[in-house]
Structures are given as C-alpha cells and as structure tokens.
Amino acid sequence: MRAHELWGTGRFDDFMQMMHEDILYIVNVDGQQVPYAMSAVGREDLRDRFELLLRTFNVTHFELLGVYPEPEHITSLVHGIYHHKATGEILDIKVRFRAWFNHDKIITRLEEIHDARYIEAFERFVFFIESAARID
After folding, report:
1. How crowded is the C-beta side of 26, counted as CA atoms within 13 Å?
2. What is d(CA 98, CA 118) in angstroms, rounded to the nearest whole number?
3. What contacts 24+ positions apart, CB below 8 Å, involve 53-56?
4. What's the rounded Cα separation, in Å, for the pair 24 and 110?
5. 44: phi then psi, degrees, rounded to nearest 5
6. Nearest alpha-carbon partner for 112 in 22, 3, 9, 10
7. pLDDT value at position 41?
8. What are the phi and psi torsion angles at 132 (to 5°)?
9. Percentage above 70 pLDDT, the chain
10. Going by C-beta distance under 8 Å and a sequence separation of 6 or more, which residues neighbour residue 92?
C-alpha cells in the first residue's frame, strides 16, 4: 500500500494527504497511557498524534510484511522499529492495520491493531522510557 511506503520513507506530508479530512483513526492502545497512540477523528487530530509520535521516536525500520484484501477493506501487517529519542530504547513491533478507502483511494478509516499480550508490555515499556526521560 502506498501509505506504508510514504510513512516508511519519511514522507509525512504526502502520507497525511492520503488521509480523508474526516478520517476515523482507531487504535487499541490506551491513549491516556500512550498519548501518541491515541485514537483520532479528522486529519488534523491525526496529524497531531503522528507528529507527537515522530517527536518522541525515530522510525528506523518500517516494513510491510503482508497485504490481505478483504471485501470492504484492506488488512496489512507491518514490522516497525522505533528508537525513543530521549532514552535510546528500542520499540520493535508488529502491527496490523485495517484501511477503508473512498473512490479516490483516500483513507477514510484506519484501525491500528496490537495483540492483547503486546499492549500490556507496550504500556510498561512506555512508562519505563518516559520515566527514564524525566529523570535525565
């Protein structure tokens, strides 16, 4: 999918242009614990979330592992490696995305799905690195 390529190559503005202005972005991670992973409504709200993510992490690897077309949407599996800028800690994740498109191939709904066992570990990781960043 083109959106994966744009994100993975750091073309953030081009990536955001693929999002509908009224996009619904749903992620199954607690946004109170992990604010850059919070769900969003609208392109500007989503832009704020992703800009916070990019201020927090360097994306060093983003690989599309598979694309699975379904009747109403496309599901993809991605492997990402993110380095926390303040602590140097590495977040190595696999994430499923589901994307719905309009007739112009603009994404109208995007779901970011983390496995349940990953979510708890991810929240512990974020708590640890954010606490370490505040100590320095």
Report:
1. 8
2. 18
3. 54/12, 55/85, 56/84, 56/85, 56/86
4. 6
5. -70, -40
6. 3
7. 96
8. -65, -40
9. 82
10. 79, 80, 81
Instruction: Kindly tell me if the per-residue pLDDT of 123 is higher than 60.
Output: yes
Question: pLDDT per residue over 19-33, tens digit each?
Answer: 999 999 999 876 666
Residue 5 has what pLDDT? 93
**C-alpha–C-alpha distance, residues 79 and 38, integer Å:** 20
> CA end-to-end span of the chain, whole Å?
39
Q: Is the pLDDT of residue 136 over 60?
A: no
Output phi, psi for 131, to 5 deg: -65, -45
Tokens read off for 131? 């606490």
Name every residue whose Cβ is closer than 8 Å to that of residue 119 and which is 6 or more positions away in sequence: 28, 29, 30
Which structure tokens are listed for 73? 């949407």
pLDDT (tens digit per residue) in 52-91: 889 988 999 999 999 999 989 999 999 989 888 888 888 8
Joined tokens for residue 64 = 């599309």
